[in-house]
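User: Hi! I'm working on a homework problem where we have to compare a predicted structure to a textbook description. Could you give me the structure for the chain below?
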Amino acid sequence: MKRSKINEIIRQGDEFIRSFGYIMPPFAYWTPGQMKDRASDMQGLIKAGMGWDITDYGQGKFDELGLFLFTTRNGDAADLTKGTGMLYAEKIMISRQDQISPMHRHNVKAEDIINRGGGTLTLELFAPAADGTIDEKADVTVPVDGIMRTLPAGGILRLDPGESVTLMPGVWHAFWGEGGDVLIGEVSTVNDDKTDNVFRDPIGRFSTIEEDEDPLYLLVSDYDRFFA
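Assistant: Happy to help. Predicted structure tokens:
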């Protein structure tokens, strides 16, 4: 993706988020220069992978296959083994109308996916087979606002604004906006986007960036290089 495209997506996304009365944390608007000046303050954010995340999954067609994310808080995966500490994470996301977030599952993360406003959030769901791959025949059962729903393999679940679904580790899911762009909340156990995303098809998690202009704000995928 071109950096200019990412910058424009961030501007549009920020406006969309604000239209629902959601206010981003102050560090969202630190410029790269301000982040460098505050590098010592940034270490917790960097380690937790908090911040902007615009991905086209390395496929170069963001409008068709992509997702806008911002991680607002995230705990430490080491705490999960201890069973105590900051065991949770939170994101705000935007799924554009007919923009696919591709079929994937998580090994560790359980997550609530919440339609915070806009169009209908539409999910395609599969249960995992014993070896972790997709079970093409088994029903899949998920809680929708605490009420159990059972769908056939590949069943479509539609969430209107205010509705949510809980996805346990292993449940395969793809999603997109239907009838309009969707503001999505995600509340989950500790999030690790570098290692805990298993995609059905070979695909990248982060974008390859063409630097055609300066970044408006850094992405989480910029941190390792920027703060090296």
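For your comparison, note the following. The first strand starts at residue 51 and ends at 55. Residues 3-18 form the longest helix (16 residues). Good luck with the assignment!
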